[in-house]
Amino acid sequence: MLASASSVLLIDFFLRASDFAQHSFKSSISGSPEMALLISPLIFLLIVTITKNYCHFVQGSGIPQAIAATQSNNKLIRDKLLSFRVAIGKIAFIFFGMLGGGSIGIEGPSIHIGSSIFYGFNRFIKQKRKLFLHAIIAIGGSAGLIVAFNAPIAGFLFAYEELGRNLKRQLFFLVGLFSLLTYFFSYLYRGNDFYLVDLTNLSTDFLMVWILLPLVLVSGVLGGVFSKSAIYLLKRFRINSFKKIILYSVGFGFLVGIMNFLSSGLIAGSGRDEVILLLNQNYLGIDFLIEKYLATLFSLASTIPGGLFMPTIAIGSSLGSELSHLIPLIAPASVIVITMICYLSAVIRAPLTSTFVIIEMTGCYELLLPGLVFAFLSALISKKIQQKPIYEALAEQFALMSKKV
Questions:
Q1: Rounded to whole angstroms, how far apart are CA atoms 84 and 117?
Q2: Cβ 8 vs Cβ 251: under 8 Å
Q3: How far apart are CA 272 and CA 11, in angstroms?
Q4: Contact present, 133 and 122 (Cβ < 8 Å)
Q5: How far apart are CA 18 and CA 195, in angstroms?
Q6: I want to staple 275 with a disulfide (CB 3.0 to 4.6 A). Which of 16, 79, 317, 375 is the partner?
Q7: How far apart are CA 216 and CA 342, in angstroms?
Q8: Would you kindly state where each structural domain of the chain is located, as residue ranges?
Q9: Do domains 2-193+398-404 and 208-389 have the same CATH topology?
Q10: Which CATH superfamily is domain 208-389 in?
């Protein structure tokens, strides 16, 4: 109970701090977008230099670290990947990453923070059996997603699809119980508002929605290409040379700065505000889609701490907005919701989580069944392009790193 309550309080603080940081960056360059060409490279350099030299395990989204921790039998490795210290470091560096205009999200870090908190509290109960430690980490990850997106079903399903692949079925009862407890604490503390917009009254003809099947192909290909490109760039960036660290971090920071300059800061941060605009039928243009796609890829490749969920959802929503003009028979909001599900599933290859997290953030339960079908098909197409899921591939890198450090 104490771990659940602590997760709600700390992650809520983290969300508020991150929101303040990303809006501060956008405000700071609103009158002079060219300032992004200076701010982003400098802050990326600062973050990458510190994390590469002093705290390797706060890099990236945090989900690969949680997965690597569940797969390891070595306590020393788990302690490096998950701890109270890592959770605090994650919050601090995400804050600075947002101040630097990074296209980064908060859900992966929230999962990392939640897993670190629950694993950290294990020192009081001193559970040593691997299966129960695995369950504790999965519970923390589920709690992180629940608090970040107010999505209890998606939180549980994420624990099942990503963190609990080798977990015995009997222990999923424990995961579900603590997921409900965390959601209850979150509800009491923050209420039960939809994370994005309320689309519960959105009406879509069930028979007509199947004409959106071509979206699956487009989303699956773009998501697969994104994953393959990100994994390739991260492997190339796995270096220890101080000169190369400076060169790569400044280079990626400058590329993100260019995207911020071109969009006047619109692509900075998680993308939640932009998704809300798109769902309310505001048009942001194909340039936003391209700039957000590239900025998210460059931010991830730079290894600065930052999540992938919400920026990916923002890219999916922009793609749906563009394609909705070609499908006048379906409400634009429905097209956007389906495309968000498909593209997110193609990138992270967790179709159940992808479907339910979007449905729970919008209340659009009418699209649940087609969303599930499309999500599985999109993930299948993505697999043809990039065999190994992105989080699993990155988890292997963190497991190798933890053995060396």
A1: 6
A2: no
A3: 17
A4: yes
A5: 15
A6: 317
A7: 6
A8: 2-193+398-404, 208-389
A9: yes
A10: Clc chloride channel (1.10.3080.10)
Tokens of 230: 């990100």
For residue 133, which of 77, 55, 56 has the smallest C-alpha distance? 77
Q: What is the pLDDT of residues 70-128, one digit of tens each?
A: 777 777 777 778 888 888 888 999 999 999 999 998 888 888 898 888 888 776 666 66
What are the DSSP calls for 268-306, one per residue? SS-SHHHHHHHHTT----HHHHHHHHHHHHHHHHTT-S-
Supply angle C-alpha 24, 293, 219, rounded to 5. Answer: 135
Retrieve residue 366's tokens.
């009418």
150-208: pLDDT as tens digits: 888 888 888 888 777 667 766 777 788 888 888 888 888 888 888 898 888 887 777 77
Block residue for tokens 């879509």:
204
Asked if 300 contacts 394 with a C-beta cutoff of 8 angstroms, the reply is no
Q: How far apart are CA 211 and CA 329, in angstroms?
A: 9
CATH architecture of 2-193+398-404: Orthogonal Bundle (1.10)
Per residue in 235-272, pLDDT (tens digit) is 776 666 667 778 888 899 999 999 999 999 999 989 99
Burial degree of 32 (CB within 10 A; 0-12, 13-18, 19+): exposed
Distance CA 375, CA 7 (A): 29
Name the burial class of residue 397, with classes exposed (0-12), middle (13-18) and buried (19+) by CB atoms within 10 angstroms of its CB. Answer: middle
Alpha carbon distances (Å) from 76 to 73, 79, 138, 405: 9, 5, 19, 11
